[in-house]
Amino acid sequence: MNAVARHLHHDAAPTKPKIGFEGVDVAYPTPEGGRIPVVSEASFAVGKGEFVSIVGPSGCGKSTVLRVLSGLLAHEKGTVRINGRSLEENRERIGFMFQRDTLLPWASVADNIRIGAELANIAHERRDARVAELIGFLRLSGFEKHRPHQLSGGMRQRVALGRLLAFEPHIYLLDEPFGALDAQTKIAMGRELLRVWSEYKRSVIFVTHDIEEAVTLSDRVLVMSPRPGHIVRDIAVDLPRPRDPKQLRKDARFADLVDAIWSELDAGH
């Protein structure tokens, strides 16, 4: 068995998970009163400070998994735990970043970021300092008073990331946050996200359709089946960190991992 095959069959889930998703079923109601199964018997775990991506065909339930974890959507069956507690008992702050930046169009860069601090009930005396710190950290200095329509797509996503960081979550859920960006900007934002993750070391679940992006960013890549989705493979990404997205694409091991994930998707479990 070759190295890639061993990774495909290896259960890389952590022994003491930060996030536990066990045998979860989710269905959406239809206008006729029926139900459409979207996720079925989905199980995985994510460790503290681990970066995990989820890939799979369109409509397989990737975004649904994030919505369940965030508490935005109820599941019908199975167990969802954060630090061993149910979602109802969870004390960890969970941040969600969507594909669209959802910035307030009338608010400045600084005010859009400040919303995260307000939602987290961060003390008033800390908010301005925290916003200023994040503006510098995300290389937005000089744009504090700009409105979203005055920014490029990549800068808007950095503002959205700043708002997420201002919320100071313990867990980041990111639903194709760079999907609408051009290839060059997407690579730049991937590098930015890795820099943020290296700094804060929070647990991350990142949904993407971009296989190369998943391998570049992640410690593990979960592959979902077509709807109703479940996890068919859990692939460890054994590439050294720190990672430069441009240089990584020249690595033979990177190519092997990308090919292995594509093979799983093509198999159409």
Automatic annotation (TrEMBL):
Annotated protein name in UniProt: ABC transporter ATP-binding protein
UniProt source species: Mesorhizobium liriopis
Pfam short name (any one): ABC_tran
Annotated family: Belongs to the ABC transporter superfamily.
Sequence ranges assigned to domain ABC transporter in this UniProt record: 21-251
PROSITE patterns: ABC_TRANSPORTER_1, ABC_TRANSPORTER_2
Keyword annotations of the record: ATP-binding, Nucleotide-binding, Transport
Alphabetical list of CDD domains matching this protein: ABC_NrtD_SsuB_transporters
GO terms assigned for molecular function: ATP binding
